[in-house]
Amino acid sequence: MSEPLNALLIEDSEDDALLTLRELKRGGFNVVWERVETAETLRTVLLSRPWDIVLSDYNLPPSFNAPMALEIVKQINPNLPFVVISGTIGEASAVELMRQGANDYLMKGKLIRLAEVVRRELREAEIRLERQQSALELARTKERLQLAIAGSGIGLWDWDVPSGNLIFNERWAEIIGYSIEELEFLNAETVRQKIHPDDLQIAILALEKHFRQEKETYECEMRMCHKLGGWVWVLASGKVVEWDKDGKPLRMTGTHLDISGRKQSVEMLQKLNETLEKKVQARTADLKRSENQLREAQQIAHLGSWELDVSTRKNSWSTEVFRIFRLDPDCPEPNYEEMLAYFPIDDRRRFLQLIDRAIQLGETFETDLQIICADGSLGYIFVKAEAIANEGGQVTRLFGILMDISDRKAIQEALKRSEERSRASLLALPDIVYRINSNSQYVDFLVSPQGKNLVDPQQVIGKSLYEVLPYDLAETQSCLMQQALATQTTQIQEQLVLLEGKPVHEEVRVAPCGNNEAVFFIRDISDRKLTELQLQQTNEELMRATRLKDEFLASMSHELRTPLNVILGMTEGLQAGVFGEVSDRQIKALQTVENSGNHLLSLINDILDVAKIESGQMILDLSATSVQNLCKSSIVFVSQLALRKQIQIIEQIPQNLPELLLDERRIRQVLINLLNNAVKFTEVGGNITLAVTLLSEAEYKEKPFLRIAIQDTGIGIAPEHIKKLFQPFIQIDSALNRKYEGTGLGLALVKRIVEMHHGTVSLTSELGVGSCFTIELPCGNAVLPTPKPESQFNPDSPLQSIPSTALAPPLILLAEDNEENILTISSYLEAKGYRIIVAKNGQEAIASAKSHQPDLILMDIQLPVMDGLEATKQIRLDPDLVDLPIIALTALAMEGDRDRCLAAGANEYISKPIKLKQLALLIQELL
């Protein structure tokens, strides 16, 4: 596989540059290269893109050489490899260049080592870059480490043990309140004097122990005297880093960390523990108060206690129970029979049954009961009771609680009424609605009067989906429900079921509804599906009709262009004298034939363009376009016709117009069409004005527009005919039809192309005075003018001779199956000095290309056996033919045909009918 290489060649000889490139390719490189000859060009190219290597000649007249080039390269990219390739450099000059920074040098006559040298220098450049990056990263790491040490607040010291000298940082001095200048002459003895007497022996023992065990780091806590008085707690640590040959320590380093704050924290923690003990005692008192507050809270919650003596049937109520029954707490408790009177008959019987079971069986019970309060109002209570038995197991007392739940019952009643309303609403829906729990069981099932159902709702509640529905349908609905519950979002899916033997399309919506349940809405969408199917069939019919129309247009374009190619080609060849000399009278006749053929070609192009726009197939190729150049180039196309009618064309085009984002070819087509019409309908001696105006936002009320007006002094148009003018195939009247030729398609194309650019076309005219067509294009996408490189290919430039570098006339392979086209093209090109061989199908073209190795191929696309596109692809697979120029000559002129040809491997594309002079110029350029 070839290695990619971006090579910059400093060489004044193109032949030597090509030899260098050939040697690089032979060495396995896929080279992207550029050649420069001057210092100015070298600077520009070095800055334009990244390069892998510079290959330079030594002498580069005038006044430029390799040392100068090396200096420029090193200024811009010091790491870029620089290799000298010269035929005249001496060994002394080469050594001097190497000293200045060149990486190697080679003689032009001995380039066999070039690929090896390039690979070596690329590797070394990569290594240099890695070293630079490593050095940079090391410097950054060192900087980060220094910052970390500076920010950590750690004091550093370094002790020369034999001399006793100490070196330390500023933080070490700051810990004991000194500046580093004040402790400049500090040594081991003076440091000992600053240690607290009670801690000195501990520090000495730790140090001596460390001297005996070289791999151990000593650490101890001690107090040191502060400059301002008092003692500072420090955590000292150290390690011997250098020993003499006898095992005695020579050098030791360590750190000091101020831990006074930590020591203070320990003392504070002890005080805090004492404080916490006091708080615990206070908390105990608070808990007792909380118990009293809880009792008060129970009263607020309408919660009371009651007790029943089984043997005496005596009640004992708390104060809150009196309040719940709307009784005065100062009154005596009602007896057993009086208590039962506060319950409606049904709830009284249920309450008695629960009391009897509790007494007889010792059961605990709880229930909700309705009560009739002393003031006659109704309420609800929650009652819970526990049976208390004696040692013999006989129940002697019932003790319980009683809570007022009237508010909760009211809420439940409201919810019940809301559910009933929701159920009524669901019944009104034209759907099946049911709820499913997390176990895939039906909780509820509703069918609206309009809905259709396969099952009886009363028979499915409580059953599983899998018991009611077919397994695959049940599995699908179960998965939908799980997704809805997991994501808490509505899931939507369509399903097909059989109802009374008929397929029915249903839309299933599943939404979570709380309590780990999901609600299903099933709607019959069979009618909608039928409508969608009918719409799809209609769309398919429309697409088929559109495709047939496109195929018909493409076929007609090909069938019409093929004979036109022969007619126009033969005419051009006869006028050029390819088939012998012709008289002036015959030339006039040939010009008449050519004009008629071009008129027919224009008609074909207009019909195809209108068809493309109507079917939406025309796609604009937008690019930044100079309006000034666009207008001037459009005028050139009609200048000869205007000159023959002595019509003056006046240009009013301001300078520095903005560039617009346009399809340059289509807008030029618009301008040429309008200019042609102006020339056609203007009498001899008249004038035409092309004026360009930039309208401001204030003038147009939205955004700036560019106005192009083409005004003539022609015959003019009546007001009642202006609306018809932009319709396809419409001309003004029969009299004009007889006097002025045309299809009536030009202005329709103008209107549609301008509207595709979001612009407008308007017309003002007066009979006998003239007309003014105005185009207004939006400038919202305007850009500043940018210089464009001039094209090197000009179809109107004189034909030059065949390149003189060839040893024999170039050989051209013509792949064409139409005999008339073969005769036309081969006769013209042979007259221009080319050798021609012919292949009449794609397979012959491939075989001839491999056997004859032509200099260029003219490939028709519609060939028998194998078409031209496939033949081009096969030719490009041959390594010997991969760079062979191929021009596609085809009658295919529909949208996208050019792109297909270029994608297959063609270098250029020309649609038939072919201008032979243009073809010859293109062949010369490619060769």
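[next item in queue]
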Amino acid sequence: MRVEQGTAVRAFAAMLKGLYERAGAPTLAALVRQSTRHRPRVDLSTSSLSDWLAGQSVPSQLQVVQFLVVYLARQARQAGHAGAPAGWMRLWEGAVEERRQRRGGRPSRPVPGGARLQVPVRGRFVAELRDEEAFDEWEVHRPVDVTAAVPGVLPLYVRRAHDEVLRSAVAQAASGASRTVVLVGESSSGKTRACWEAVAELPAGWRLWHPLDPSPVQALANALREGIAPRTAIWLNELQWYVGEQAGALAEQVAAGLRALLQDGASAPVLVLGTVWPEFWSVLTAPDVPGRSSGHAQARALLEGKGVYLPTAFEARELEDARMVGGHDPRLADALAHTDDGRIAQYMAGAPALLDRYRAAPPAARAVIGAAMDASRLGGAALVGQDFLQAAAEGYLGDDDYDALGEGWLEDALAYTQQPSKGVRGLLSRVRARTGSDGGGGWRLSDYMDHIGRSERRFAAPPASFWHAAREHLPESHLVRAVSQAAEARWRDAEAVGLYQRALDLGDLKAGQGLVWLWQERQRPEEARRVQEQAALAGDGEALEELLEPMLEQEQYQQAEHLVREAAGRGSPTAQLHLARSLMLDGEAEEAERWYAEVARCSDPDILRAYADDLRERGDLDGARTALRAAGDRRAMGELVALAEGTTEVEEAAREAFAAGEAVPLKTLAEQAEADGRPADAARLYRDAIAVFERRRRQREEGVDLINFEAGPRSPLDFIDPAVLPMPPGETWALRQLVALLDATQGAAAGDGALGELAEDGNSWALERLLRRLRERRQDRAAEALLDSEVARGTPWALWVQAHRAVHDEDVPDDVRRTLLERAAAARVGQAVRVLMGTAEEAGRREEADQWALHAAARGYTTPLWELIRSREKTGRLEEAEQLAWKVPPGRRSWTLRRLAQDRSGEQAMPLLRRAYAEAMAWAPGMLAERLEKAGEFTEAEHFARQAADAGDRQALEDLAAQRRNDDPDRQWQALLANGLTVEGTPAAAW
């Protein structure tokens, strides 16, 4: 008997059927086929679709509904009809709840995708946001004023190449998969506006949240600790304030929290949208070098493959689109009329107007702006206080200008900087502290002026007043430490010492490490020890250990105990652990337990693991487990498994350890089960591991814009032999051993099923292995049928196999070969782009080759572009190679040009180096100094070496001083080597 449907079910069915009809009423079979190609895969049947459209039932899974609505809405818009109504999510939720109540279910149970864990809901519904709100909290640049009437508060939008990548990530999030995407581009290039346009396409029910209060990084850290509700888009404009040096001590914690959030199925889907300048992106994604960590390991892992580069200027085709749109918006038409370099976004954001006002600024206003520029570029200070500006600005004025200052010079200067230019916010603007907020107010430099300062002041060292003002008036310890590091990089070591000391006094333990090194370098052991003691008492465990080691070797037990007790009393976990152990050895168990209780409250994984060792030795296994769980890192989770050995909890502990990144226990358990003749248990454990590996693989691969199938070490001959393809990614020990186990216990082809399952889910290695097994068993027809089906589904690796065959088959016509390669390239296969580039270059179509190489580089795959540059370099086409290098996306341009200059010898490198210097690339003066010194141009070499030091690269000047110290009649070079530079750039006196 068919139950009559209620109002909510009928309303949802009417919405879905109307959308289906506006989409052209595709066949139900076509919808099913489309769902199998979706990533992640969506399972549909024609009977279910028929029931849903007729209102006889309601889909129960959010992912299914999102796929249907997003796909049908896209088809409807392409046909010129309206997409999905704004309230479709609420209609579906109501229909699900109504069906549940009619079946006697629990009426208040959350629907799939809802906030199941009762986490706080943050942000605003995307559907409720209005363009008028874009400028304040969301930080979209206000457009310049024009006299004519305009069609809206925001200029009409011109979609560009990066918008397609961004919208793809948004569509995947709307379909139920958590995603991260970061737009990388220079100031005012359109990053934030592109994000604003993209989030507007999120379906109803999504919220947009911008972490800001009490500070950006603290707000995000707090939220990650409390939990993020599903269907939240997190707006991280200026990403460096959340996971970079500018975020201080919380940066890596936040990056790790975001990684965990994106991998947490219970929180899915969430969307993380970021914007960042190329120089910050380069720092955040820089790999570690031997012997030195970048300090951004978590951020680098979070951001791998997530960057989308924005060109500084509109491309030719984009300019054509802009001219068409410009006929309907006077602001865009004005920008096109006043720019000839394609910098349309910068013009509309008011950049030229701001620059004109900056150039015309009176001396006091320029001085204030210069101080704010240096605070941002050297310390990462987003806001500076008025007391800082007053103290710092004086040194930026010449004597005559300083003498001419009036009584209210600072107020006049700030009034000038605040005035808008063509409706755009001023050079410096006041930011008021919010009522009830812990965050303070201050003065903020405009984004574009910050960009100008980093370029124009790249080779300028700040005056003495800046260093003094930073020491006295910057309130946050990590900002003071950043300025300390900037002083040290410029060989202003005397200034660096004072700044490091101030940062340490404010509680920054990393500053203590830098200060100790400076004192040790000058052979001042008493000063180094004083700093170590201060840092140890403030909680630096490493400093405490370094101090204790010689004390214990020299049997200075009383001094060591006094130091440990004082540090423990001030809250140092390392000292508390030392003291507890010592008291326990002395038989003072009661006092020892009191200190152990303090240790248990700390958050340091190393200390907690050591505490767990002590508990285990005393037989308190429950306490040890509690301490290890509190530590929570991979080593602690591995030790938890060891504690669970011989119990029924060992498997669960091994799974937890595996989820935390410790693979050995689960692997060992599976292999032991296999060795013990328990193949079903072994297979189950292997499958548990595979599920985790696959989740990580999808997280890693689906956000990447171009897939690189050159995984793993291979001989160059492998890429020449047409029978050998680069091994696709996706291999894991768990999958490999599961297949071997199934083959051994269930028959020689039993592993095919597991491989086919994962191949269908997008694991390219599983597909490659399955094809190889079929061919080895001479099942060529089955292999070809499998490959054809994967090609039909649009599987990237299968398309690359097809194109690869065509490349190496002389009988394939050129146009067919090119079509297959372009289809693979459209499916994000980096190698296909590479072949297309190489083919065009060999045929002399260099402009086409450039475009393919740049297409790949803009999507994070820079190998083809560098190969093209090197190829032209080796064949003597130096100018062509250099011109192409200057077109590299901003995040990789400086590295590419530097490598190119390093590889060139003698005079060949000089034009490139001088242009790089003119473009304010920080490495250029140091390299110029080195080349000029070798060429005998000693005066000019010294000039550039000093410029390099002022820019933060002291190595060139140190090398020059070391070379000239033996020919130094007035001992200036020796003084320089001993004491560094004064703030004015002369050799410093002993300090």
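[queue empty]
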